[in-house]
């Protein structure tokens, strides 16, 4: 985020005596990107952008976590007021944390004027042997892996920039709707060449026996947890009913084990699916045998920003109703 969005890293610490009790690494971003909108928000005193942070804050185990979290949020909001920040967003604590969806932690955020909503994921424990891990999968997952192998699907790890462009990025952009391929490629170039990139990011492409790319899948590795990122599948794999993402996920789990990871985060599902697509995603991720984890995501909005967003939302819904009434037939 620092390299791509010219964000500013900010680091908050709470100490108790001579020890660190809590830390929070966040990024202060310019928001929104449109200069006219930024000017308008500046006039309202909200031109300071937004703050994003995820998988945290990190809290020591043997402390009063609620008290320390409250001190940490107070520190952050001193920065918020000083810099005219309009929104603070948190993707929540890590799904493998022991304080996910903790009611007392929720209370601290609520007292500091945050709203929260639930999200969910499946977390696969990778500490068992490869054979035991395979047997822990749902029958449909094992069946899909075997079928993909019979179809001659092979998996290749992408380890050079040229290979990434040819065998991962280009297929991904061809198979997904992306309005600005040049901008996406530019951002991918920055990420790939960032120092330490290869330690944290890993990419794989599945190929048919005839050489066609069928699917891509990436993962991010940090602190013993691998998280799925950047997934896409070729239309031909759908048409020919090749379970290519099954074999890709299996190979990704094995690579995560080789990287020393203890858990694999399947990157989120809707707790209450609102569409067939969300239901299909949930069903696919459930079959890998991971633990279902619900966690909280938090957001603070400046009171003026909250009212402004409410007005925008109301106007958007009103315009939608007007369009439906004016539509012919």
Q: In the CATH hierarchy, what is the architecture of the largest domain at level 2?
A: 3-Layer(aba) Sandwich
Counting H and I runs of at least 4 residues, what is the number of helices? 13
pLDDT < 50 stretches:
none
Write down the overall geometry: globular
User: CATH H level of the largest domain: which superfamily?
Assistant: Gcn5-related N-acetyltransferase (GNAT)
Query: How many domain modules?
Result: 2
CATH overall fold name of the largest domain = Aminopeptidase
**CATH hierarchy class name of the largest domain:** Alpha Beta
Derived from helix and strand composition plus strand pairing, the structural class reads: alpha+beta
User: Helix fraction?
Assistant: 40-55%
Q: What is the alpha-carbon Rg in Å?
A: 22 Å
- Report the sheet with the most strands, covering strand number, pairing sense and barrel closure: 12 strands, mixed
Structure commentary:
With 329 residues, the protein is an alpha+beta fold. It has two domains: 2-119 and 296-326, Gcn5-related N-acetyltransferase (GNAT) (Aminopeptidase, 3-Layer(aba) Sandwich), CATH 3.40.630.30; 127-261, Aminopeptidase (3-Layer(aba) Sandwich). Helices cover 44% and strands 26% of the residues. The protein has 13 helices and twelve strands. It has helices at residues 2-5, 35-43, 65-83, 103-111, 130-136, 139-150, 161-175, 181-192, 197-200, 235-239, 244-258, 276-286, 303-326; strands spanning 8-16, 19-29, 50-53, 58-59, 87-90, 114-125, 154-158, 201-207, 213-222, 225-233, 263-265, 291-301. Strands 1, 2, 3, 4, 5, 6, 7, 8, 9, 10, 11 and 12 form a twelve-stranded mixed sheet that branches. β9 and β10 (225-233) form a beta hairpin. It is globular. The N and C termini lie far apart (47 Å). The relative contact order is 0.14. The mean pLDDT is 87.
